[in-house]
Amino acid sequence: MSTTSSIDPAFYAFDVFEETYKTVASHDIKAAVLIPKNLKPGRHPVIVNIHGGFFATGHSLFAAWFHPWLIKMALDQDAIIISADYRLLPSPGGIADQLEDLEDFWQWIKAKFPTVLQDRAPGHALDFEHLLLVGGSAGGYYVSQVALSHPDEISALAMAYPCVDLKDSIVNEGPPLGKPTVLRFPEADIPSKEEGLAWIRKKRGTVASKGELEITPYCVSLAQNGIFNAEVFEYDGVRLTTNELPLERLKGGARLPKNVWIFHGDDDSVVYLHQSEKFVDLVRAKLPEINLRFDVAEGKDHAFDMDVSVWDAYPASKDAVAFLTMAWLE
Predict the structure, then answer these.
(1) How far apart are CA 174 and CA 234, in angstroms?
(2) C-alpha count within 13 angstroms, C-beta hemisphere, residue 330
(3) Torsion of CA 102, 103, 104, 105, to 10 degrees
(4) Is the pLDDT assigned to residue 2 strictly greater than 70?
(5) 16-19: long-range contacts, CB 8 A cutoff, minimum separation 24
(6) pLDDT tens by residue, 19-29
(7) CA angle 161, 130, 324 (to 5 degrees)
(8) What is d(CA 138, CA 46) in angstroms, rounded to the nearest whole number?
(9) What is the longest distance spanned by two Cα atoms in the chain?
(10) Is 313 a residue whose pLDDT tops 60?
(11) Residue 5: predicted pLDDT
């Protein structure tokens, strides 16, 4: 069943295929589907994954940023994973373009994908009563937005070190005095401000939905120099509105799914812990009925869970995954 041109070893336990869910300017935007090999026919719980990557890179099958614990959970629970691509920034409409893509992706999952699945994997069906939504970093932002728009369609939401405050000072000013460089990049390896600007100028005007690691240093440069917001989020008259700001949506009365897990390292060098703390404080104040678990990992940096040995040694990891599994499948 695997139809992608090259499957990363991280996904060898799955049959994998991709489907186009929308087309923009003749560019196909796809979703990847991962079905555990030897999965018995029947209805299966669903995991929807939305990748991160500085809002500007990564893709639906980018193994380096695909949570290993999520892969294991899917295999343990015989779940089907649907992982989304979307337009990468910069794009003409900025964040609004990405949110439009992900709303179209969500509607495609519900309206069209069940028929696609019957064609590609006969005998398998989706149990939308048990749907888990997962995203980390920028992906944590995206899943918060999807969840705020569709709270009653999601059994459980998992947000890893989520970038939920697009107004945070790091995108306008860079890291404050005493903080490490963004992602702890060695200063000698960070492209200059001029190089970062040259890269963003070159990338503007193209539609892309898949990016690789070589883009990351330029994103680091823009953030380190305090111009990420001006050059990526709010360039050329584009302005962030309430619709693009999860914290403002929560303040305005938007709801979340009934089960939410958030985890974040307290030594995060790009999405600072206070972003999650603001989100959690608002949820507790506005939505006290939510079954919320918030784990703060002492001494851990951004994306610490991508290292299996570090994650397995993290004292809360087993209890947290057990919480999420029960919340998702209860």
Answers:
(1) 16
(2) 12
(3) 50
(4) no
(5) 16/61, 17/120, 18/60, 18/61, 19/113, 19/116, 19/120
(6) 999 999 999 99
(7) 35
(8) 21
(9) 58
(10) yes
(11) 53
> Cα–Cα distance between 91 and 24 in angstroms, integer?
11
**If you count them, how many residues does the chain have?**
330
Contacts of 110 (CB under 8 A, 6+ apart): 128, 153
What does the mean pLDDT of the chain come to? 96
Query: Using 50, 70 and 90 to split pLDDT, how confident is the model at 4?
Result: low
| pLDDT tens digits for range 166-188 | 999 999 999 999 999 999 999 99
Cα(262)–Cα(277) distance, rounded to whole angstroms?
Answer: 10
For the four alpha carbons of 139, 142, 146 and 147, in that order, the dihedral sign comes to positive
Give the domain ranges of the chain. 9-169+236-329
Dihedral of CA 48/49/54/58: which sign? Answer: negative
Give the model's pLDDT for residue 280: 98
State pTM to two decimals: 0.97
Give me 236's structure tokens: 């050329």
Task: Give whole-number Cα distances, 17 to 5, 111, 118, in Å.
Answer: 10, 19, 13
> By the 8 A CB rule, do 98 and 85 touch?
no
Q: How far is CA 106 from CA 86, 112, 131, 145, 240, in A?
A: 12, 10, 12, 12, 22
Question: Which letter, b or e, does each residue of 212-221 get, where b requires 16 or more Cβ atoms within 10 Å of its Cβ?
Answer: eeebbbbbbb
The domain 9-169+236-329: what is its CATH number?
3.40.50.1820
226, 227, 229, 230 alpha-carbon torsion, rounded to 10°: 140
